[in-house]
Amino acid sequence: xxxxxxxxxxxxxxxxxxxxxxxxxxxxxxxxxxxxxxxxxxxxxxxxxxxxxxxxxxxxxxxxxxxxxxxxxxxxxxxxxxxxxxxxxxxxxxxxxxxxxxxxxxxxxxxxxxxxxxxxxxxxxxxxxxxxxxxxxxxxxxxxxxxxxxxxxxxxxxxxxxxxxxxxxxxxxxxxxxxxxxxxxxxxxxxxxxxxxxxxxxxxxxxxxxxxxxxxxxxxxxxxxxxxxxxxxxxxxxxxxxxxxxxxxxxxxxxxxxxxxxxxxxxxxxxxxxxxxxxxxxxxxxxxxxxxxxxxxxxxxxxxxxxxxxxxxxxxxxxxxxxxxxxxxxxxxxxxxxxxxxxxxxxxxxxxxxxxxxxxxxxxxxxxxxxxxxxxxxxxxxxxxxxxxxxxxxxxxxxxxxxxxxxxxxxxxxxxxxxxxxxxxxxxxxxxxxxxxxxxxxxxxxxxxxxxxxxxxxxxxxxxxxxxxxxxxxxxxxxxxxxxxxxxxxxxxxxxxxxxxxxxxxxxxxxxxxxxxxxxxxxxxxxxxxxxxxxxxxxxxxxxxxxxxxxxxxxxxxxxxxxxxxxxxxxxxxxxxxxxxxxxxxxxxxxxxxxxxxxxxxxxxxxxxxxxxxxxxxxxxxxxxxxxxxxxxxxxxxxxxxxxxxxxxxxxxxxxxxxxxxxxxxxxxxxxxxxxxxxxxxxxxxxxxxxxxxxxxxxxxxxxxxxxxxxxxxxxxxxxxxxxxxxxxxxxxxxxxxxxxxxxxxxxxxxxxxxxxxxxxxxxxxxxxxxxxxxxxxxxxxxxxxxxxxxxxxx
Length: 795
Prior knowledge:
The structure is a single chain. The chain has 795 residues and is of the alpha+beta class. It has 20 helices and 40 strands.
């Protein structure tokens, strides 16, 4: 936003120069992008009056004039501007004047006629890039006055780059308020008296979409004179703010926008049928804009309409049919508050960016509409005349923003800033910012004014205190760190151990989204009660995952589509289990999971080429369980799991609780997910893995060990793992190793039976075991197996 420094100083005038003011604004968060003079350097230019203006005798396009500049004699000056005429006040560069570009004015003759000076145009003085004829000054301009002083051209144009949250500073009033706070000085108040209506004409207003527009004001002004010219002081303030003068009505609305920071618009009253309706656009509705382009309106776009058609895109751009023209005599002036959410993004969707949309997107003071209306009305009546009707207001009070109370704790302020600011100073800063402040029990409570819509939480107040106090005023103290030994539970297994174990076994770590395709998840977990997002990124990412399988299998399909013959992926993350008993209705469970498919090894002339199978995956899972140093705590059962092959799936239990699963992907699921080869997956809860059994150091036996082999016959239904568990319990401390080294079925073995050959290694730490001791252990084992499993020794 560009603004005139002199205009700002009319509101508040700190005792600092331009450079200090710019630095102060930048340090307060209102970054100054540039400072440039309001006009180029020149001197010797004064206000003059054209006393005579006649045709040059030897040139059709030149005129011979006599100019009164307040001296004893009139100046003879030859001028070629088409707008030169008797009676106007002009800018006169007298002999000896120096214009921009070091152009010096001297006495001269043009086609035989003396010329003792030059009548100047705006662009010749570096005031404006546009120039259509010589500069015409107001008729009350004092003759002979220095033009720089008369137009106050010793001014600077400051360009500030405001962050989106500081929409309150998109006007001179807001900037002045900010400068006043930073310098602890009062700001001159602008008196805006109510304009007394002189006619009763009014237009009805209906808020059809009051969520997007909770307040709309309208006022009829009749009998305006658009032949009137915008005052030069207003034109100059607009120019120095980067706004071109168009006509008095548009200039006034732009002036109020720059002065108060509130956009306004004027409609041709005769183009309005019935009354005003603030509504959303209808399907297929079109509007010809003021720039002549036709906009096909979206249904989400808020429009200002009459009873038959759209008149303008609300808060963005007016329509051509209802725009003010040179023939307009009656207008409807509007002043409204639009919800920033309703305006945000709408201008860009039509390829537009206007001063109004720039402000409405960031937020406008919801209590400023009446002041803006009264200010604009008074200026219009002063410039173009006419008669004003009463203000008609439509408001949905319950839809307007509410005054916010924000609390600031002393402890929080000191901790974030790292510096103690006196209580009285903090209270003064917050009060000067316009907040209604109360201090009690080391805490401030502040009611936020309507124009500071960016202050909502405690951190906002901390930021305000810090920037107004001055970041340079906060001591530069290096942070100190106290060394403290942290406690570490030796039994806790670091996540890196599991990652390294899987990487060592040929896996690569994957990171997938927590949001998955609900259809894919339903294929793998048909009974799952997934948490569905109300506003997802896309429909394919609308459900929270209940396992890592959907993301990992999607990665498998992606890699297979790119001809990868061997895929081994793992991931550590959260799964989300919906449960009303949980806090926020969902349990977040850390898990580690993996997937393998394709070749066991890459192609090699030595290694046998084969695809992975169930037991390859089982070996990887057992390697993870072994890290806990307590494999006996885990129980693996052949059991069906969601999405897995019923004959190739297993479940992992700890103390009767299911903590994981592994197995082959179900063929139907494999087909639905567009996966080619047989694929195997696993998933284990980290709570079952993150604690390990610490080893207890014992002395190494000096005595020899003894091995005894037994071969037993049991039914096929008996699980080998159960047999080994029983042997381990019965063998006692002397059983130091146990190994199943043969399984046999066939000749000599009855149908539905199998022969198991098991090696028992026995050893004592305090003596050499005698034969009777060894036999006793073996006999106990055989007896226990006979009792538990009806097992018998094989002949």
